[in-house]
């Protein structure tokens, strides 16, 4: 982790900021996100495409990290957004992203969400089915508009990642079967007046750390484009989706230059506008979750119980995922190790962050950082066990700000109403 280091009495430092100071000032659990890391990674990704001379438009997958401050950082780097709901669409606009730089993906877009997308004249709607196509066409005609669309192709390719985050197999709910595309494309481009069909989109899955599925997926798209063009149809845009993985542990995660060269080799000669929709690769390493050790329980195993739980970071419970854990203090003896289970306070056995992990000895009151928590962390949080949502702090060079206040229990309870016709005690 190039943005993390130990600096003597400051302990663990992220892009120049002492995480201990943040934890002491704002309490735990707290999320920290570095604008600097976000920017650095955004530029690295854009550079990879520039090096290949590829006209690639980058759309950040808002689902990975939806805070407006993060979206503003990326908008400033020239990013647009990939959104999957009306809420994300409005967030992206509120954060300063231009409507024409927004792509709307998602398997269940409601009529209201499609109306919003059409009225805002966003760049592209990725259509997931023939049913959605007809619904969208009718809505757009009623609004006397023409929606720019692409077909999301289901290429029936296994992304070689966790099955819960695989999206491109035939049995997955996403996209239109690739062999149904040519006929539907022709019908749409020649007969439908509510939509302007500009091309194809594909997204195979997330946390992909091998090259083969990307290559296979894009080859399939390229051959579809050739078929469509041979049939006299127009294809001007290809959306390559997201999915680029990171090294949470010791995975050999390929860099964006791999993605850029695969895209160049498979789609580079088609003379189309290219789009990508990365989320995790940009945001995950930019964020950490800070927590404090509540107790160390010695039982059949040694359990380090921390004050962050699966309601904050659900990834380990949901996908058995591995997140690095580092103490915030500089360990006195870097070689001393214990084998512990790091667990949260939630009353479920799945509330485990690490099993049999080798860590420097930790005691009550020590603080730790859970790493690579900048993507699919805050956005998947809940208030399970009546735990208010944690605070979020953005750091940027020597600046820092609370970008989301810690929710209070009063705020949580204020959302609820007890009907006055219920008998009260
Ligand atoms: N585009 C589409 C259409 C997607 O469905 C996704 C992610 C992305 C782009 C961004 O993928 P990324 O570059 O972040 O891999 N909650 C899970 C990940 C779910 C991903 C869903 N789709 C996790 O924590 O691992």
UniProtKB/TrEMBL annotation:
<protein>
    <recommendedName>
        <fullName>Diaminopimelate decarboxylase</fullName>
        <ecNumber>4.1.1.20</ecNumber>
    </recommendedName>
</protein>
<dbReference type="InterPro" id="IPR022657">
    <property type="entry name" value="De-COase2_CS"/>
</dbReference>
<feature type="binding site">
    <location>
        <position position="280"/>
    </location>
    <ligand>
        <name>substrate</name>
    </ligand>
</feature>
<dbReference type="GO" id="GO:0008836">
    <property type="term" value="F:diaminopimelate decarboxylase activity"/>
</dbReference>
<dbReference type="GO" id="GO:0009089">
    <property type="term" value="P:lysine biosynthetic process via diaminopimelate"/>
</dbReference>
<feature type="binding site">
    <location>
        <position position="243"/>
    </location>
    <ligand>
        <name>pyridoxal 5'-phosphate</name>
    </ligand>
</feature>
<dbReference type="InterPro" id="IPR000183">
    <property type="entry name" value="Orn/DAP/Arg_de-COase"/>
</dbReference>
<dbReference type="GO" id="GO:0030170">
    <property type="term" value="F:pyridoxal phosphate binding"/>
</dbReference>
<comment type="pathway">
    <text>Amino-acid biosynthesis; L-lysine biosynthesis via DAP pathway; L-lysine from DL-2,6-diaminopimelate: step 1/1.</text>
</comment>
<comment type="subunit">
    <text>Homodimer.</text>
</comment>
<dbReference type="Pfam" id="PF02784">
    <property type="entry name" value="Orn_Arg_deC_N"/>
</dbReference>
<keyword id="KW-0663">Pyridoxal phosphate</keyword>
<feature type="domain" description="Orn/DAP/Arg decarboxylase 2 N-terminal">
    <location>
        <begin position="38"/>
        <end position="284"/>
    </location>
</feature>
<feature type="binding site">
    <location>
        <position position="319"/>
    </location>
    <ligand>
        <name>substrate</name>
    </ligand>
</feature>
<feature type="binding site">
    <location>
        <position position="376"/>
    </location>
    <ligand>
        <name>substrate</name>
    </ligand>
</feature>
<comment type="similarity">
    <text>Belongs to the Orn/Lys/Arg decarboxylase class-II family. LysA subfamily.</text>
</comment>
<keyword id="KW-0210">Decarboxylase</keyword>
<feature type="binding site">
    <location>
        <begin position="277"/>
        <end position="280"/>
    </location>
    <ligand>
        <name>pyridoxal 5'-phosphate</name>
    </ligand>
</feature>
<feature type="binding site">
    <location>
        <position position="376"/>
    </location>
    <ligand>
        <name>pyridoxal 5'-phosphate</name>
    </ligand>
</feature>
<keyword id="KW-0457">Lysine biosynthesis</keyword>
<keyword id="KW-0028">Amino-acid biosynthesis</keyword>
<dbReference type="InterPro" id="IPR002986">
    <property type="entry name" value="DAP_deCOOHase_LysA"/>
</dbReference>
<feature type="binding site">
    <location>
        <position position="315"/>
    </location>
    <ligand>
        <name>substrate</name>
    </ligand>
</feature>
<feature type="binding site">
    <location>
        <position position="348"/>
    </location>
    <ligand>
        <name>substrate</name>
    </ligand>
</feature>
<feature type="active site" description="Proton donor">
    <location>
        <position position="347"/>
    </location>
</feature>
<dbReference type="InterPro" id="IPR022644">
    <property type="entry name" value="De-COase2_N"/>
</dbReference>
<feature type="modified residue" description="N6-(pyridoxal phosphate)lysine">
    <location>
        <position position="63"/>
    </location>
</feature>
<comment type="function">
    <text>Specifically catalyzes the decarboxylation of meso-diaminopimelate (meso-DAP) to L-lysine.</text>
</comment>
<dbReference type="InterPro" id="IPR029066">
    <property type="entry name" value="PLP-binding_barrel"/>
</dbReference>
<dbReference type="InterPro" id="IPR009006">
    <property type="entry name" value="Ala_racemase/Decarboxylase_C"/>
</dbReference>
<keyword id="KW-0456">Lyase</keyword>
